[in-house]
Amino acid sequence: MITFGRRLVSLAAALALTAASVSSGPVSAQDAPFPTRPITLVVPFPAGGPSDALARAVAHGMAEKLGGTVVVENIAGAGGTIGLGKVATAPADGYTLGFGTIGTHIANVALYKTLPYDPLTSFAPIGLAGTAPMLVVVRPGLGVSDLAGLKAHIAKNGAKTTYGSAGVGSIAHFACVILLAAMQQPATHVPYRGIAPAMNDLVGGHIDFMCDQPTTALAQVTSGKVKAVAVLSDDTVPQLPGLETVAKAGYPQVSFRSWSALFAPKGTPPRIVERLNAALRATVAEPDLQAKMQAVGVDLPRGGDLAPAAVSTLIADGIARDVPALKALGASLD
Fold first, then answer.
1. Sign of CA dihedral 278, 284, 288, 292
2. Peptide bond before residue 116 is cis, with ω within 30 degrees of 0
3. Which of 111, 209, 230, 316 is close enough to 138 for a disulfide, judged by CB 3.0 to 4.6 Å?
4. What is the pLDDT of residue 320?
5. End-to-end C-alpha distance for the chain, whole angstroms
6. Bridge partner residues of 265 (DSSP)
7. Total tally of structural domains belonging to the chain
8. Quick one: 184 and 244 in the same domain?
9. Given a cut of 90, is residue 64 above it in pLDDT?
10. Phi and psi (nearest 5°) for 126?
11. For the residues 63-84, what does the mean pLDDT come to?
């Protein structure tokens, strides 16, 4: 006969087994650890360019902070729209991220009638990764030393004057279009598959000028292979203290900075966005990375600039300011 005391023991044991079964069961999605597998960061431009360099530096730091792996995948083409289009349709689980820029999220709105993503609604911003001024650099022997000289050269030679870029819709293309519009001068665009081959042709004297970020242009300028004639910003470049700013040259409306930011597909859980944002914040706060990026003219964000909402504001403001100007120039690709 089973006594009342024995029944209590049996009931307690059963309850203990039930509790153990519950506690060892599947973890809810809300509480699941992240990441548990490699994260892919899609860079929608060729390897070796300024966006790629910053993306790889950020990916390395974030991997350490997350305790996982972040793999950079270059999916170039169509001004970055192909790569970011893939990000926009990827599962919203935090394992596929995109590296967007002022070109992919603002210039492309004017350049393409249709995009495979909406810059404002297709993504969940993670945070700003970095900003940089744009340099106007000319080929050796062009014989100009400032924007006034470049304008005079274009006025004399017209569409025979050529400028290179990393491709249609790239930051380099965007910057030069705005500059030429302000100068009211024509020039022929020569798009390349990346900024490196464009710079090679500038050094070789095959094109006349280009707009480029310090990340890739500074080494060529300081070595004397190309000449910097202006910075498209109100701020001077520490490495080139005597370089004329666009405002001093008489074109304050051209002043802008390129930017890059991390994005996840829309619908990514807030806790994952927060986790990724925390890793990004910790990465860009590292003194070693700050020093490395500052040496090549890139400013890493701080404080409120790192908030996801700040990226959304940056995009909305840029679209409102720059897209009408680009469309007024008749800028279009299709």
1. positive
2. no
3. 209
4. 93
5. 88
6. 123
7. 2
8. yes
9. yes
10. -95, -45
11. 96
Q: Does residue 4 fall inside a structural domain? A: no
pLDDT at 3 over 60: no
152 and 217 part of one domain: yes
β-strands 70-74, 96-101 pairing = unpaired
CA-CA distance, 307 to 126, in Å (whole number)? 8
**Residue 169's pLDDT is what?**
78
Stated as kind and residue range, the H or E segment containing 35 is none
Cβ atoms of 158 and 186 within 8 Å: the answer is: yes
| CA atoms of 212 and 173, how far apart (whole Å) | 9
Q: With respect to residue 34, please indicate whether it lies within any of the assigned structural domains.
A: no
Collapse the DSSP code of 333 into the 3-class scheme (helix H, G, I; strand E, B; otherwise coil) and give the result. Answer: coil
The strand pairing partners of 163, in sequence order, are 189, 209
**pLDDT tens, residue by residue, 229-239:** 999 988 888 89
pLDDT surpassing 90 at residue 319: yes
**pTM to 2 decimals?**
0.83
Q: φ and ψ at 127, to 5 degrees? A: 165, 160
Provide the residue range defining the domain that includes 61.
Answer: 39-131+258-328
The reported pLDDT for the residue numbered 167 is 85
Nearest C-alpha neighbor of 45 from the set 60, 56, 37: 56
Q: How far is it, in rounded angstroms, from Cα 28 to Cα 243?
A: 57
